[in-house]
Amino acid sequence: MFQLAFLLRPFDLVATLMIIAAVVAIAVFGRIATDARGKWYISLNKPHWQPPNWAFPVAWSIIYILFILSAVIAWHSTGGSVRLRLMVLYALNGSLNVAWSFIFFRSRNTYVAAVDIALLLLSIVWIMVSVVPFSPLAAGLLIPYLFWVAYALALNWTIARMN
To answer: Global pTM?
Structure first.
């Protein structure tokens, strides 16, 4: 069972801090690429059901915290090759997450961004299915992320079609 006592072990503390740093880097790189106030984005036709711009950083902050918790729990609930495979999946997910911001906002390619976000959604499912045997909690913490990205995929696809 997952316990907070792992924080007292030096190696585990280092791993936890590395996971936190990696997710903060994902958030920072994604933010650098995002230009929600730029002329191009403002000029896009968007569906009436798009949330206000202020909702995105709030949602992503919550998701990143849950993602960190999930990855830390996964790290401490596994070992060896299973742990390595799970961390590769979390890293792949982070890469797809950052890539979307660059593809959508910098390349302005809404259709390729939709493909990326579909892959991001699949990677979330893959992580959840892979981690649930070792920690249902780590998998469950990703449910809001799964729903948000499914919603974002629908939003991205709709924006692509409207423009």
So the answer is: 0.91
